[in-house]
Amino acid sequence: MNHLMQSQYNEGFYSYEELQKIGFASVGKNVLLSRLARIYGASKISIGNNVRIDDFVILSGKIKIGNFVHIGAFSSITGGDSGVTIGDFCGMSSHVKVLAISDDYSGETLTNPCIPNQYKNITKKQIIIEKHCIVGCGSTILPNAFLSEGSSIGAMSLIVRKTKPWGVYFGIPAKRIKERKKDLLKLEKEFLSSIKETMGGGIN
Predict the structure, then answer these.
(1) Which of 60, 86, 91, 115 could lock 110 by a disulfide, CB 3.0 to 4.6 Å apart?
(2) Distance from chain centroid for Cα 174
(3) pLDDT (tens digit, 9 = 90+) per residue, 147-160?
């Protein structure tokens, strides 16, 4: 372990040995998980390599996190039984909410976790976030949303349906406002090549 990684562990991230004891379905290398994050149902959560999860993040339910993913402070991902899948090279800013499960707000049923399910109408639908998506501060992603590869979501936006690849989205509900450049795909290849040369990989 290099001095930088050791310093980060000392500053409030779990060590590799501690991560193994939490009980995740799987956990990769170079994972920085804040000691101030909350994990519910670790056995349903898979974390890839080179992932950083910051302070006060809440992870619960079925979640699969890819490689080179950052989840900012105060964000929450609720996978429920349907699940949330986050692809490689994705980033979430602070206060992002991802919800694969939701109550019925129509008033036709009761709501909230204190009420038995027979009195509620719960929506449970998988959320998929493909590679190279970035989600701005304070945004919310609701059940059945699908962020196609390269989607960029502006701050304080609401995603309720499928986006098209390589677009910038903004608003409530979010609308495509312009195209997103793909220059980063070339940088991805260069970056992964450099890792293989200097560190022997780290994403497989």
Answers:
(1) 115
(2) 18
(3) 999 999 999 999 99
Run of H or E residues at 136: none
pLDDT of residue 199: 64
Instruction: Over range 65-72, report the average pLDDT.
Output: 98
Task: Write down the pLDDT at residue 2.
Answer: 47
Separation of CA 122 from chain center: 22
Give the position of tokens 């090279």. 89
| Secondary structure class of 15 (helix, strand, coil) | coil
On the CB side of 184, how many CA atoms lie within 13 Å of its CA?
14
Q: How far apart are the first and last CA of the chain?
A: 19
Going from the C-alpha of 120 to that of each of 5, 106, 116, 130, 134, the distances in angstroms are 46, 11, 7, 31, 33
Report the phi/psi class of residue 9: left, alpha or beta, with left for phi > 0 and alpha for psi in -120 to 50: alpha
Query: Would you state the structure tokens that stand for residue 128, as one six-digit string?
Result: 């998929």
Residues 6 or more apart whose CB falls under 8 angstroms from that of 113 comprise none
Q: Do the beta carbons of residue 40 and residue 59 sit within 8 Å?
A: yes
Q: Tell the residue number behind the tokens 């699908």, with chain if given.
A: 146
CA-derived radius of gyration, the chain: 18
Please state the φ and ψ torsions of residue 18, each to the nearest 5 degrees: -70, -35
